[in-house]
Structure formats: C-alpha cells, structure tokens
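Standup notes, protein team

Yesterday: finished cleaning the Psychroserpens burtonensis set.
Today: Peptidylprolyl isomerase structure.
Blockers: none.

Input for Peptidylprolyl isomerase:
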Amino acid sequence: MKLLVTIVCFCFTFLAQAQVKKDDVLFTVAGDAIMASEFVRVYNKNLDLVKDESQKDIDAYLELFVNYQLKVKEARRLGLDEDAKYIGEFNNYKTQLTKNFMSDNKVTDALVKEAYDRTTSDVKVSHILVRLDESVSDTLAVYNKVLKLRERLINDGFEAVKKEVHDGKTIFAEDLGYFGGFKMVYPFETAAFNTPVGEVSMPFRTRFGYHVVKVFEKRQSLGEVTVAHIMISTKQNDSTVDPEARINQIYKKLEQGEKFESLAKQFSEDKSSSKKGGVLTPIVGGQLRAKEFEDVAFSLEKKDDVSRPFKTDYGWHIVKLISKKGIQPFEEVKNELENKVKRDSRSALINSALVKKLMTKYKVKVFKDEGLAFMETILNDGFFKQSWKTPKDIKEGVLITIRDTQVSYKDFADYLMSNLRKYNNQLVDYKALLTTEFDAFLEQQVLKYHEDNLEFENEDFAFVLKEYRDGLLLFDLMEKEVWNAAVKDSVGLEKFYNDNTSNYVWRDRVDAVIFSSASKTTIETVKTELQKDISAENIMVMINKDENLNVISTANTFEESDQVLPQDFEFKEGVSNIYKHNESYHVILVNNVLPAKKKTIEEARGKVISDYQNYIETNWVKLLRERFGVEVNKRTLKRVKKQILKNN
C-alpha cells in the first residue's frame, strides 16, 4: 500500500513539475523577466498559422521570441513609447478593444438569441398610449388611467375605444400592423412579443408614457424583399388621364419588351423612386401600410418577375422583383445582431447585469441615504434653468467606495451639473431626481473602475492589449532602424549589392507571345497562321471574330520556371510546339531568347533592399543581445517543451 501511495505521489509530482506555472520565468532581458506562460500562449496562438513542420520547432520559435523582446526593450530605451502619435494610436485601439470586454457574455448571448427569434417573427398589434414625460416619477394616476382603458379595450374592442379617446396629443390609439425585432423601443417590443395572441397586456412604461397592447396575430417573418415599382396616382390634376387606363398602357409596353427602368423614369408618379428606375428601399414584412402592395411584392418569386397592375389606397402599381432574402440562419447573422443589441436600448440590461456582478467582485459600498439627503439640501430651482453649479465649499463626504477608491459628494455634484440640460425648464421633485440620477451615476462609476482596471482583471484582455502595445512599438522601431535605413542608405545598399551580385541573376528568358485557348483545334489554327508569318494582331482579329473570345494572347518577357510556361518548354526562337498546360492549350511565338546574366542593381532593387534589410536586422539584433544580455532558464524551457509537445 505504501508503495502504491509513493508511486501515485511521484507521478503527481512529476506531472506538476512538467506543467508551466504562471510565475515561471523562461528568460530575462537586461534582468527583466519574460514569463514562460506568455511564450506558451504566443506559440500556441500562432501554431495554426505556420506553413510547415519546421516552423513548429520550439528552439527556433524561442529565438524569434527573444529577438522580439529585445526589440521591444530597445524601443522603450529610445522612448518610442512616449511619442504622442504612438500614444494616440494605442489609446484609440484600447478604447475599441475595451468595448469588446465590457459586457456580460451570458446576458449578451441570451439577448442576441432573443433578438434573432424576434427578427424571424412578426407580431400584429394595436396599442393605446397615454403620454408621460420620462422625468416624471409620480405615475400612479396615469397607470390607473391606462388600467381602465385596458378594461374598456377588452370589453368594447379596439375600434370603439380608439374612436372615443384618441386625440393625437396626450392619448394615442393606433393600429400598428405587423412588426419584428428592433422596429420598436425594447420595452414595447418585449410587451408585444410576450403577450399571447388575442390578449391585452398589462400597462407598461416606455420613454413615451404608459401603454397597453392588444396582440392580434403572430407569424413567421416574410423576410426582406427589394422591388421597383411604377405608380400612377388615383388623384390626377389632368382630368383626361384615367389612372387605370394609363397603368394598363404602361403594362402593355412592358409586354412589348420595353425596359421597366425606362418606363418608371418616364411615367411613375412616385417621384422619390422614379429617378432610380422605380427601385425602393428593401421592405420587411409588416413594414408597409399598404397590405396589397406587400402581398404582391412578396409573392414574386424570381428576379426580374413583374406583377400585373394592381390598386392600393395610393394608386395603381406595377412591381418588379429586384432581390429577395428569406430568414437567414442564426450563425450567419449572429455578429450583426450582437452589434445591434449593443447599440440598442437593451444594452442597458447587459450593463446592469455586469454591474451587479462587479458590485460583489469589487466590494462596492454605497452611502446613499446620507449622501442624497445632503445633495437635496444644495439643489435649487437654478438646476432647472441650467444655472446651478457645484458649490465651491461643498461638504466633504464619501458617497461610494469601490475597493480602495472613494467617490465623493463633489463627484456626484459635478455629474449632476453635466446633466443640467436634460432637466431644462422642468420642475421635478428633488428626491426623485436624485434617486434616478444616483442609480445611473453608480453604474457609471462601477463600469469606469472596471474599465480602468480591466488590464489587471482580465488575462485575455491584458494579453491582447500587450500584444498590440508591443507590436505597435516594434513597427515604429523597425521602420526607424531597419526599413527606412535600408532605403535611405544608397552607399551601403550599393556595397551590399556588389558584395552579393551572385544572388541577383536572370535565368534564361524569352521575349515571347503566349496564345492560349480551351480548344486544341483553335490553337492549331493559330500555330498554322504564325508559321505563315501572320502578325499576332491579325491572328487575334481573325480568330476572335463575331465578338467570340476564342483565344487570349499575352506578350511579355518570361523567365525560366515562370508558372505560365509549360514545364517542358524549349527555349528557342520561332513558333513552339503545342503544349497542354494549366488545363488549356498553348502555342508560343518566341521573338528572342535572352541568356542568363547578372541583374543590374536597378533590375534587382526590390530584392536587394529586402536582403539588405535582413542583413541590417541580423547585425542589429546581435548588438541588442550584447547591450541587454539574455539568460534562458533551461529547466523552465524543458518544462515548456514537454507541455507544448503534450498538448499538440
């Protein structure tokens, strides 16, 4: 038994030692530690990008990683990280990256799925709205009023209630037709989709006031359709024009082959679309007031299908289908929906969920009652005239603590002052105003603290940010020390070329015209004509007559091993044999054979500059190693190799 326990313990110890720990140092640069965990993460991240097995060599990759760290160290020594342009570019990136990490993923995923379900469905509703300003907190009277209207809606029906109460100012009773996700404010959308068909919701509040909705029908979304139309209005200034006769005349022209776009430009009385050939913006099911138009538009099946003339309340129409898009699979629209969710008012739910978690994580303490009681004493009616300011001698006091950070009364007062415009010319109860604004202020402060400390709280964020921070530095450094240096150093470039001329040579080349065709017979005809000394231009005209493109010619200087040349191509002047290459037939007219020779510096300039840059970089890295010194922890490297090999 003791032996078994000993073996188990030994194996556990061995496995533990083989795993790289977070604080294991792989190597140092000028005494600064570079962690093994960072190397493993970078290696694994780039593993899928390598082109062959040799690039997976851990020692070779470590060499590159050490060189990378040396360059970053040099960039900081030169103060490139203090350059204003660098700081601005880095901060812009950090701001964008932060947005991706400032959310609660579970809540976001649930909202995205909900949004998909609602964009693939339509709901048909009517509603009654009693207007109420967003800032009003005493809402009981309005709520009760809407509750009574709900009872009447259930008992008397929508049309009867609408006829009696709708005034278009303080009370609205409207038939909204069909709509899907993102077409209404989120609370309204939620009430409509959550209320069963045939029932009336309980009163709910949006920024417009209190509503109730009655749901008549739910259906699968029709998708999206783009159409063009020609419209003749039923209201004519010219009494001699019969709208129905005119639309039938236009339809007759279409049947005779005239273009829809031209007829729309000439005759359509929808001036907003006629100049575009009648093309309308994409239509989503339930979007249009004219159900007849929607029914016809969605009934067309194939691109360029044209409807017969039909009538709506607006006039007579002929519709042509431009494109049609049905319901898209969730995975295809997921990213687009996530962006919409984060821009929509429902994003507040994501923030609220995140703040709730962060309040616990950061041990947030709130001294609300005492703080708001004090704030109430310093407000006055100037607040509603945009003349109120934070008192200079405001009492010191702590309103919120987030870990070791304190948020003061003055911080909240300054926040209130920045929101004066929202309450311009309103008279709101101080207590209600402070409660509303404090909740928003608390959320803002917790999220700001989280954002400021995200690099220390989220390992993934810290890694991506460091990667960009160092990469941006490295780009600036390489541009300064290597890339621009090689281009500007004309003397050094010429010397490098002279020392390495054997690397810059032309292989055998031909000045030639390649004729290509999918038809062997066609190429045989081309070859026969070439042998008659007919010019390439005349052959092309003869072969490609009647707008048929039977053969393509390419004139250039082609080097040996050029992929456009057949592998067994013979370098000699005159008309070549016929070759089958790249799944087509070729014959080549060789005007001149150019034997192998050395390239001039101008001919090889691009390659010479690239090689010279590599030469400069190699010698520069040697100097950096001498300047900073690199020490590799061989024991840690051994564990790194074991872990990488085991996991890959």
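Follow-up from PR in the comments: The domain at 1-101+465-495+610-648 is CATH 1.10.4030 (Triger factor/SurA peptide-binding fold).
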